[in-house]
Amino acid sequence: MSTFNVPTRNDVSTGNQAIFDQLNKGIGFVPNIYATFAHSENALGNFLGFANGKTSLTAKQKEVIDLAVSEVNGCNYCLAAHTAIAKGAGFTEGQTLEFREGYSSSGAKLDALAAFASEAAIQRGKPSAKAIDGLIAAGFTQENVVDAVLAIGTITVTNYLHGITQVAVDFPTAPSLSLA
């Protein structure tokens, strides 16, 4: 099992303390996975800057990617967090389960995005031409495809960090696909 603890505000650098304060102000707490980044002097700020950078994708489209990729990578932490975030953004639990399975019955655009994100993760960055062409046919641009790749990379980082550290999940547990 992991030997990683979840650092508190008092355990981290002054720079990370300021980020903890911003997170507390903005979302009401510091998620354990973000606190874990703060074991490094620079990782938390670098990650949040990358994750919160400008993108051509909507927040909902990013959640589709987060759920599809987190399912492929088997990250219970990110599945829990992004199920809660997606539901807060207006998706139903049923939709979140579909995204995790790499599809959507909510329309061609979300279906193509979920399929692309899932396949890109399964194929380690080498989705089929069909998956890429499906995005374009559904109305995504080349800019959107590039931004989707960045979103896949961002969620993969947190998937891997949790896989390595196994810090406690501090979001409601996401339902199992096998029980859905």
Could you characterize what this model shows?
The protein is an all-alpha fold and 180 residues long. The chain folds into 2 domains: 43 residues, no CATH class; 107 residues, AhpD-like, CATH 1.20.1290. It is globular and about 50 Å long. The two termini are 29 Å apart.
Query: Main beta sheet: strand number and arrangement?
Result: none
Helical fraction: 55-70%
Total number of strands: 0
The level-1 CATH class of the largest domain: Mainly Alpha
Named at the architecture level, the CATH assignment of the largest domain is: Up-down Bundle
Helix and strand content put the structural class at mainly alpha
Range of strand content: under 5%
Instruction: Name the CATH homologous superfamily of the largest domain.
Output: AhpD-like
What value does the Rg take, in angstroms?
Answer: 16 Å
- State mean pLDDT (0 to 100 scale): 96
Q: Any idea of the CATH topology of the largest domain?
A: AhpD-like
List the total number of helices: 9
